[in-house]
């Protein structure tokens, strides 16, 4: 996955459309969310059902786009070696509020199955660090996710 993202980012330096740029950026965000889903090595039904709705609200995507991005990210998941490749692009393009919303979505996925696995916690914390968010912002997003639990 990293190789494909590097290729996509390299092609971005060439003339690509704004739609393709947005797709690459969304793919990076979806990939980070999938890292949380796969962190505990179990794919729960709650996570599977929550992921598409989080993408439509967090990234303002249409359902058809969501399905395509999830399929692409899942197909490339095994090649992922670093969160840095995803967060670099996001740092360049996302506002602070968008980064916070992404972390909130990651926390929601982490808590979707009713408990927080230490690996899920680590992924979210490392991502927040790579996105240059303050610890207080990370905790604020975690508390918001907990408060929104059913």
TrEMBL record:
InterPro entries noted in UniProt: DjlA_N, TerB-like
Name assigned to this protein: Tellurium resistance terB-like protein subgroup 2
CDD domains (UniProt xref): terB_like_2 (cd07313)
Limits of the Co-chaperone DjlA N-terminal domain: 27-143
Listed Pfam families: TerB
UniProt source species: Shewanella algidipiscicola
């Amino acid at each position: 996955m990293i190789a494909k993202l590097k290729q996509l980012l390299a092609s971005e330096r060439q003339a690509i459309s704004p739609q393709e740029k947005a797709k690459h950026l969304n793919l990076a965000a979806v990939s980070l969310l999938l890292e949380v889903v796969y962190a505990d090595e179990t794919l729960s039904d709650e996570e599977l059902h929550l992921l598409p709705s989080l993408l439509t609200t967090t990234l303002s995507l249409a359902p058809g786009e969501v399905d395509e991005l999830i399929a692409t990210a899942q197909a490339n998941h095994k090649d992922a070696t670093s969160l840095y490749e995803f967060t670099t692009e996001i740092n360049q393009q996302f506002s602070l509020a968008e980064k916070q919303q992404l972390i909130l979505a990651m926390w929601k996925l982490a808590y979707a199955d009713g408990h927080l696995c230490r690996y899920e916690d680590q992924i979210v914390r490392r991502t927040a660090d790579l996105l240059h968010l303050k610890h207080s912002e990370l905790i604020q997003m975690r508390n918001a996710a907990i408060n929104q639990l059913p």
